[in-house]
Amino acid sequence: MKTYKIAAIPGDGIGTEVVSAGVEVLDALAKRDGGFKFEVDNFDWGGEYYKKHGRMMPDNGREQIRNHDAILFGSAGHPEIPDHITLWGLRLAICQPFDQYANVRPTRILPGIVSPLRKVTNKELDWVIIRENSEGEYAGVGGRVHQGSSLEAATDVAMFTRAGVQRIIRFAFKLAQSRPRKLLTVVTKSNAQRHAMVMWDEIAKEVAAEFPDVTWDKMLVDAMSVRMVMRPESLDTIVATNLHADILSDLAAALAGSLGIAPTANLNPERDFPSMFEPIHGSAFDITGKGVANPVGTFWTAVMMLDHLGERDAASRLMNAVERVTADERYHTPDLGGKARTADVTAAVIEAIQGSNV
Ligand code: NAD
Ligand code: MN
Questions:
Q1: Counting C-beta atoms within 10 Å of the first and last residue's C-beta, which end of the chain has fewer, N or C?
Q2: What does DSSP say about strands 126-132 and 237-240: parallel, antiparallel, or unpaired?
Q3: Among 258, 283, 341, 346, residue to substitute to test ligand 1 (most atoms within 8 Å of Cβ)
């Protein structure tokens, strides 16, 4: 029997609640399948770890997870620690050295879930956003001088390389090509940002020549936010910079009903390093510990992880189970307007897996 070694890093806030729900569901899925199992190692890294040790993860943290088949991540973010410390100390400290440069974020309106956009259904909104995940505005280049004085100055330099832009745009064209509509929108801001964003546009045009069967267009990011709301059916696969796609994908998640259902894969497509799978949302301090976090984003994330591991049948079995459960309003958590609790949704998905004949 195939055994997958998974590194679970629940992190902080509702991260711990949704990751443990995700692990329960993965175990149920392995039992139902019979052809593989998971060996899950749990890492207690994050804000509480920081309070004890002064760092978000141990010095040799990455070595400890280097040889796992995949990483299941919850959230980095603690109410008592500045966000840039938690983010750079844990999530980015894994994504960047492991070269997980392709951040893939599918959005669909799942059965039973109503979009805040009037009359929009899953036929009109079925997107994948690809976020450049290693450079751009989050490259970490910049600095502060004269801190606290009236002369203080600060910069965050958006750093783009030809190699980095080329590989993400090529990845996006390939993904668009694998989807029925073969349609890609390249998002930049090449009117105002006249260096790197112009380079993005040029590289997009070059790479497009390798994919004659993919229809593509380009959009400025501000106009893109309007198009997502007004003409969602005109979009399919979308590629954008680290910052732009970060913002657009939260918007996409909200348009599909809730931030609580949206998944992400941080992929190292070459598989030189493990890839990392996480819900889009953060620690959600406002609902931490209440047992009402929506675990669907993490379950969908687990679907992406199974796909990456090559377990296609188990992936579609889990997605079917999730969709059967979202179709039933009794299993909607408060973010979807319901009263269900994390544990109710988890139990319902496990039951759907056990009873599934797919
Ligand atoms: P957030 O995603 O934590 O919460 C935004 C809103 O969405 C909140 O009202 C929250 O209750 C709701 N929400 C989010 N996930 C939900 C779920 N599964 N079920 C139900 N409701 C849900 O974003 P924020 O408030 O901007 O950030 C809080 C902390 O999380 C910050 O420290 C931030 O840095 C961190 N964060 C981490 C990540 C990450 O690690 N990938 C991502 C985003 C934010
Ligand atoms: Mn984000």
A1: N
A2: parallel
A3: 283
145: buried, middle or exposed (CB in 10 Å: 19+, 13-18, 0-12)?
exposed
Which residues' Cβ are closer than 6 Å to ligand 1? Answer: 14, 18, 75-77, 83, 87, 91, 259-260, 278, 281-287, 293-294, 297, 333, 335
pLDDT for res 355: 85
DSSP structural state of residue 111: T
| Alpha helical stretches, state H, 75-149 | 83-86, 92-95
Helix, strand, coil % in the chain, rounded to nearest 5: 45, 20, 35
* Sign of the torsion formed by the C-alpha atoms of 297, 299, 300 and 304: positive
Average pLDDT, the chain: 96
CA of residue 284 to ligand 1 center, whole Å: 4
In this predicted model, which residue has the larger pLDDT, 119 or 99? 99
* Paired residues of 183 in beta bridges: 215
pLDDT at 101: 98
Residues in the chain: 358
State the pTM of this model: 0.96
User: Which residue has tokens 């679970």?
Assistant: 8
Nearest CA to 251 out of 268, 270, 269, 235 is that of 235
Give the helix/strand (H/E) hosting 72: strand 70-75
**pLDDT per residue over 157-211, tens digit each?**
999 999 999 999 999 999 999 999 999 999 999 999 999 999 999 999 999 999 9
Residue 38 pLDDT level (bands cut at 50, 70, 90): very high
Domains in the chain, start-ordered, CATH in brackets? 1-101+262-358 (3.40.718.10), 115-256 (3.40.718.10)
